[in-house]
Design a protein that fits this description.
D-amino Acid Aminotransferase, Chain A, domain 1, about 25% strand, Dna Ligase, domain 1, 4-stranded antiparallel sheet
């Protein structure tokens, strides 16, 4: 289960400090040891259903705060917090984070370096926008996440497929169905993990990333080093982006690229990062971002003092081709620096890469995490661990 694989450590951290009341779309399973009570609603993004569940829990308990680490629920949860009189960044600010077109306009207004971007409603408009911006361009849904529907077009011929890919994803979303055509930022991608409490932002860590080859933008690897010298470079831009959006109380995950060594914004996510990045931050610095998010939701000043100075790396596991997974194993004993391996696909499962109409939820096999005294060590160990991982995929056949 992807939720358990990527969020169990977060829930465990929060439950160690607070009684957790869960509103979820499915009957709890792995969550049970960490929660006190639960209400199941068909769709937590439905504000009426979420509000009813929240009021029911508020009648049973003295609720101190509410928060989510799920992208699709950021706006409804902010509205729920406001309805219950609890601390929150304003719902309209969370809406700006969720809509990439709105965020781009705010970045431009406040002078935050970002990508040139145009919102379009048709292939003809997309073609015109691409010609004005200049190839290569990136097409993406305005309201999705996790690189779903995002691809690069280097030529007018590639634009047709990129538009169809983004449009299909946008129509499956729960919010804006719009599409953005954006300038391609050519440079290394990083994310900046930030904490904002009562309007004051602390830059906690920078995550260096490895991305799949064009045209897609699948996340392949992340590395966090407590002493990364890039922190000083990216921190001012991260703080400026948070200020431009109006975030007052949140853990934020800010994606950017370094173009000629200078930060340019991709997007701001008003939540804890996915892909186990918060766990990497905890391993490298000792700062617990999940606990921090809960503290902020309850209007308690978080403890952001580092207790470690090391590094951690994750490798996200993908097949080379779509097909059926037939073999998966790790060869030999696991050294202490191999912090964990998690497989959430198993032999017999079907894997579908973005090129074949899939996305990370249909393609990713799992991940492994390594630690080390610095980034070079953690990355080297991750490569060593990958060499001992064996998979076989039977390619899909076409009639």
């Amino acid at each position: 289960m992807e939720a358990e694989a990527y969020r169990a450590s977060c829930l465990q951290s929060v439950a160690a400090a607070y009684d957790v009341l869960l509103i979820t779309s499915e009957e709890p399973s792995w969550e049970v040891p960490y929660i006190r009570d639960c209400i199941v609603v068909a769709d937590p993004s439905d504000l009426a259903a979420l509000s009813a569940a929240g009021r029911t829990l508020a009648e049973r308990y003295d609720i101190a705060g509410v928060f989510t680490w799920t992208e699709w629920y950021l706006v409804p949860v902010a509205r729920l917090a406001r309805q219950l009189g609890l601390p929150t960044t304003a719902p309209e600010v969370m809406q700006a984070c969720r809509n990439k077109a709105t965020a781009r306009s705010l970045f431009a207004r406040h002078g935050v370096p970002s990508a040139a971007s145009t919102s379009v409603d048709s292939l003809r408009e997309a073609t015109t926008a691409a010609e004005q911006i200049g190839y290569p361009v990136v097409l993406k849904p305005a309201g999705r996440a996790a690189s779903v529907g995002v691809s690069r077009a280097d030529t007018p011929e590639q634009l047709l497929a990129a538009y169809a890919f983004a449009d299909r994803a946008a129509r499956q979303g729960q919010e804006s169905a719009g599409i953005l055509v954006e300038e391609y930022l050519d440079g290394p991608e990083v994310s900046v993990e930030c904490v904002t409490y009562r309007g004051e932002t602390t830059v906690v860590a920078v995550t260096r990333k490895s991305i799949s080859a064009p045209p897609y933008f699948e996340q392949l690897a992340h590395t966090v080093d407590a002493d990364d010298p890039l922190l000083a470079t990216v921190a001012p831009t991260a703080r400026a982006a948070i200020h431009a959006l109006g975030i007052t109380d949140s853990v934020s995950h800010i994606e950017m690229r370094l173009v000629d060594g200078r930060p340019r914004l991709i997007e701001v996510n008003g939540r804890i990062a996915g892909d186990m990045i918060s766990h990497l931050v905890h391993l490298a610095t000792g700062i617990d971002l999940a606990r921090t998010a809960a503290d902020i939701a309850c209007d308690r000043e978080p403890d952001l003092a580092p207790t470690r100075s090391s590094a951690a790396a994750i490798r996200l596991l993908y097949p080379e081709t779509s097909g059926t997974l037939t073999h998966l194993d790790f060869d030999g004993p696991r050294p202490p620096w191999l912090e964990r391996i998690d497989f959430h696909r198993h032999p017999g499962d079907r894997l579908v890469l973005p090129a074949d109409g899939g996305h990370l939820f249909t393609a990713r096999i799992g991940y492994l995490i390594t630690t080390g005294p610095n980034a070079v060590s953690a990355d080297t160990r991750a490569t060593m661990a990958l060499d001992r991982l064996h998979t076989r995929v039977e390619p899909a056949t076409t009639a």
